[in-house]
Design goal:
mainly alpha, Ribonucleotide Reductase, subunit A, 11 helices, binds fe (ii) ion
Length: 284
């Protein structure tokens, strides 16, 4: 197990100021009666806290991948990683405030032992420009996940937290898109639209497996007594349906299509078919 996940990684220059700080979250003001028995939200919040807390493993691989692009590597270390880790810490605090009987650290350690082995360099696109497209898909996925969490949360502190995290994920998406465009402009023989579309499609299909499934399974294995009824298959299916049926699909398609840079008229023409395709892929 590595260094505490609650502290941003050490770096040569001080971390950048964040848009918000975990200490601003009103944990003491949580309306427990409105959240404690919400089984679906327990799974959504706890599994997100695991993935976010494990993001330093991912950052390490990405920083190595972009060693020849110091601007990207610097942003990953100084902006992206501290923000993702703060998401993990803020969600963890929420879980511990609402469901103190859930053994967060023990469950996280079990998750991380398995997850760490999955985070390899082979997971990344060899082409650095295309990996930025893959990052855009991941950040589109996290944006929509927190959008859904915010909309489902009847408890105001959770709605506020999900909204803050969603805002960060949108910014991450924008940075990755901006770097992607910069790299693409610097290489006239860069990846074609077809290559970009292939990465988009593959990553869209992957959104629902591996990471989130591993996290969900470890949360389920350590679930509190009050949520003992449902099987893992039921929980997995329910969580997935919940997120995919609440997707802001128009926004998802717009975010996904940006790296392809289609003329607006063509994008408009393709939008209904792409919405159907995205729904099919995500609900398969
Ligand atoms: Fe995040
Ligand atoms: Fe993010």
């Amino acid at each position: 197990m590595q260094a505490p996940h609650t502290t941003p990684s050490p770096a040569s220059s001080p971390p950048s100021p964040r848009r918000w700080h975990v200490d601003e979250i009103d944990y003491a003001g949580i309306d427990l009666a409105r959240i404690q028995d919400q089984e679906d939200l327990f799974y959504l919040v706890a599994s997100a806290s695991f993935i976010e807390t494990g993001s330093d493993m991912y950052t390490r691989n990405l920083v190595r991948h972009y060693a020849d692009y110091p601007e990207v590597a610097h942003w990953l270390q100084q902006h992206w990683e501290p923000e993702e880790l703060q998401h993990g810490l803020a969600l963890r605090r929420y879980v511990e405030a609402v469901w103190p009987e859930f053994p967060w650290q023990e469950a996280f350690d079990a998750f991380f032992a398995e997850y760490g082995a999955l985070c390899t360099d082979e997971e990344l696109e060899r082409d650095r420009t295309l990996e930025l497209v893959a990052r855009c898909v991941v950040e589109t996925g996290t944006t929509t996940y927190y959008h859904t969490m915010r909309d489902l949360a009847a408890e105001p502190v959770l709605a506020d937290l999900a909204n803050r995290i969603r805002g960060d994920e949108v910014q991450h998406y924008k940075y990755f898109l901006q770097y992607f465009r910069k790299l693409q402009a610097s290489q006239p023989a860069g990846p074609s639209r077809l290559h970009i579309a292939r990465v988009l499609y593959q990553r869209l299909r992957e959104i629902k497996d591996s990471d989130s499934d591993v996290a969900l399974r470890h949360v389920w294995q350590h679930r509190p007594e009050r949520f003992r009824q449902a099987s893992f298959a039921q929980i997995s299916q329910r969580s997935y349906r919940l997120v995919s049926s609440n997707l802001p699909i128009t926004q998802v398609i717009r975010m996904l299509l940006k790296p392809v840079d289609l003329p607006r008229s063509l994008e408009k023409l393709l939008e209904p078919a792409l919405q159907r395709l995205a729904r099919r892929v995500l609900s398969a």
